[in-house]
């Protein structure tokens, strides 16, 4: 199969950048960037790794969940990592590229598929961005919305996710009035939410059967300069949409007995207008409730108390990682809310 990259590069001569990603892991130390040059989508979406060796990781994540049935969702992730740097991907010594998709059906059944592309590239110019994991999927994004797609020969899941952006990007310590160009969530760990909340339209084929829904969507990216499991002891992340509100939370602890104080970031918007966000101490507290067959969290922020209860487990290894869809109810700024939906996850390495 011929590579699309030379044709793409020739066609996009006006691009601010075109970054191709070598699928072969390098054997030398690489530079990792944790500061944005601007709040433009092209800068925030750009790869933050100079190259990919055995100890660094980066991924671009998209999801959408039905607003009428919290079981129904799709998650699409484009990885550049090795299993050494992020142990929940399959080992592959010859390539750092991976396209992964999870589609969850109305009955809560999840169909999972993955593929290894030959090439990948990320392109950007001001507030436009695109990525292509060759012959497996990609995205095109701008301030008005994103279009992400997946599918390859023999894939169990194929189709597209459309996000109509209703919210500005979010960095860990962004406030309601200012975007913070520091993208470091904690030491050696980066995170930025490109789309904290949006309307989503999904059109898929899953094992040959249509799965179409409208709901809410989300898009972010993570990266790190050391293996993920050496940076994180425990981790709770999620996004919820209930009534006019969109919420994002992130809380994690670092390994070691002296690192039990959580590092956190949180966000609340109403009809796309940011009400509160930041990374100060006490911005969010997460209480997990997990049994062998269920998972839920209580999310507490200033003026906010939500109960998120899982309805369908989307992914996990039964030991270190759990991702669920769920329903949401609670109170936000004195207003009783219910009937919301959420995608949320946990990592536990210690």
UniProtKB/TrEMBL annotation:
Using the record, list the residue span of the signal peptide; answer none if the entry has no such feature.
1-15
Provide the AsqO/PenF-like C-terminal domain boundaries: 230-347
Q: Which residues form a coiled coil?
A: none
- The residue ranges of the Diels-Alderase N-terminal domain are 23-223
Arranged from A to Z, the UniProt key words for this protein are: Signal
* Protein name per UniProt: Hydroxyneurosporene synthase
